[in-house]
Amino acid sequence: MNVTRLFDYIYYQKAKKPLKKSIGYKHNGTWTYFSTDEIIEHANKVSHGLLKLGVKPGDKIALVVYKNRPEWVMMDIGIQQIGAINVPVYPTISSGEYEYIFNDAEVKYCFAGEGDLFDKVQKAQENVPSLIDIYTFDKMEGRKHWEDIFTDGDAAELEALKDAVKPDDLATLIYTSGTTGNPKGVMLSHNNIVSNVANVKELLPCNAGDKVLSFLPICHIFERSASYSYIYNLLEITFTGTDNLGGETGDLQTIKPHFFTTVPRLLEKVYEKIYNKGLTLTGTKRKLFFWALNLTDDYEFDKNFSGMNGLKRSIADKLIFSKWREALGGNVKGILTGAAACPAKIIRVFSAAGIPVREGYGLTETSPGLTIGRFDKGGAMIGTVGVPLPSVKIHIDPSDGNYRNGEGEILAQGPNIMQGYYRKPDKTAEVMKEIDGQTWFCTGDVGKFVSDGQGNKFLKITDRKKELLKTSGGKYVAPAPIENKFKEDFLIEQMMVVGEKQKFVSALIVPAEEALKDWCSEHDIEWCGCGDAIQNEKVQAQFQEVVNKYNPEFSHIEQIKKFKLIDATWEPVKTDGTPGELTPTLKLKRRVILEKYKNEIDDLYS
């Protein structure tokens, strides 16, 4: 069977190997699984139900849940089969953001999960004329349940609608986080995502019937495409949440998965637990633990350890690393991390312990994959994001920036590139570039190709062109709005938010010297210069008060957790004529500041 539309995957599974436990989750304390046939049956009831509600091809249906669940997948299939458009939205955004997205997309119906989601959507509904009704996935008194739309209909009519859906038709609208304004709706066709899933089909280190865990938000294209891949590869999917993974009764131990996707922050947390447990050991056990851990420092993919080195690692594997594998269920064949750069140390530690970790790279606009570190020999290199997918072309463009040798903006071509931003042709044009008659998508990331010395080349991301940082948890943070708000305080002259690839967001703060001098005078603190003042505990406490004052205006991930006071003046040009930390228009030269204050930033995260 040839898969050309996203809803074809479940029928491919039925034709190849129907599963008794295709997709499941823990519902009301009980593990509940749906077979391939049950998923199709429910999806068809959804399709007929939506048709009865008057939904037509091209209409938009929103889905929002806190935790991944089979109902989301059934709705996704049911929506697509009739040519309607799935608009997945994040559960953590505000009612105001729902209002904007639903109005922009002209959403007709919304299906919501548990918690406060119904209330937030209902509040937004007051100002969304197109939103007819809201349904819940959990039965609640006074609210319409998603099964209320279930109905049987004319099978021939549904088949005709399915046949009318073409590979290049719009399948989904995914709204990306706005950095300086409202979010943009990324238009992805069936073929955009199908081409990506087809590219990775043979790259997953799994066999039909293997078990996978899914806990990253399915509204994000990374996990959503992964779920299609799992169905395509005939794998048993279990949905869960990150809060249910660890411990002796956690889902890793219960499900014993063979594969899962994750973000670097989760692996960092697992490593921190392993390391902290090692610190609690005493005597010989403690020595063995850290001896084994030190053996991971020189690990590289495909590196052969023989003789005494090989013997040491065999001993470490039996005594230490085998326990780490058991903590993850004992069956993991591979882990794919994305959404943010993964520290090389984390990849080395897990991979050396027999838990292979690889990185992938992409964007919502690229459905999402552009490159992937493969699990076969010669297919990955630590510190890189792997090789381009078979149907993807990568071009390093050095023409528009001051790049190091071999670096440039990462541009991409392929059938996975989005159709554009919904109703925003000007924004679409901004991320497309013509080179020698060919159109390329501009990622905004800076990178280069590097060699492993064996003739294999891998993409390495070295910087970000756009002023947008990404934490190790994969969350985007726009620094400028935070910096501008904090600079409203009289004590702050300049500020730069930092936190790229880190667990949390911090800041470098340049005090406004005259204001600080006045404050010190008012609080009986002798003034001996700014450098002396910023060491004073009362001064540091006052700046903490400033941080505490403005933090609540931002989301949790955007809040400043630590800061460092800087005794300096940031200017476009230094007194000696050398370039300063600011552009002529007084914008921050972020790379210059990052390099100049590397030690101070390292102290914040030490």
Task: Please provide a written account of the structure.
The protein is α/β, with parallel strands linked by helices and 606 residues long. Among the domains are: 8-165, Rossmann fold; 478-604, ANL, C-terminal domain (GMP Synthetase, Chain A, domain 3, 2-Layer Sandwich). Helices cover 35% and strands 22% of the residues. It contains 20 helices and 27 strands. Strands 2-1-11-10-12-13-14-15-16 form a nine-stranded mixed sheet, sandwiched between helices. The longest helix is centred in the middle third of the chain and has 21 residues, at 307-327. The protein is globular, with a radius of gyration of 26 Å. The mean pLDDT is 92.
What attributes does this structure have?
606 residues; alpha/beta; Rossmann fold; 9-stranded mixed sheet; 5-stranded parallel sheet; 35% helix; globular
Chain-wise SSE layout:
Blueprint: H1 8-16, E1 23-27, E2 30-34, H2 36-52, E3 60-64, H3 70-81, E4 85-88, H4 95-105, E5 107-112, H5 117-125, E6 133-136, E7 144-145, H6 155-164, E8 170-176, E9 184-189, H7 190-200, E10 211-214, H8 221-232, E11 236-239, H9 251-255, E12 259-262, H10 264-280, H11 283-294, H12 307-327, E13 334-337, H13 344-352, E14 357-362, E15 369-372, E16 387-388, E17 393-397, E18 408-413, E19 420-421, H14 425-430, E20 432-435, E21 438-451, E22 457-464, E23 469-470, E24 476-477, H15 479-486, E25 492-498, E26 505-511, H16 513-522, H17 530-533, H18 537-550, E27 560-565, H19 590-596, H20 598-604
Parallel strand pairs: 1-11, 3-4, 3-5, 5-6, 6-7, 10-11, 10-12, 12-13, 13-14, 26-27
Antiparallel strand pairs: 1-2, 8-9, 9-19, 14-15, 15-16, 17-18, 18-21, 20-21, 21-22, 23-24, 25-26
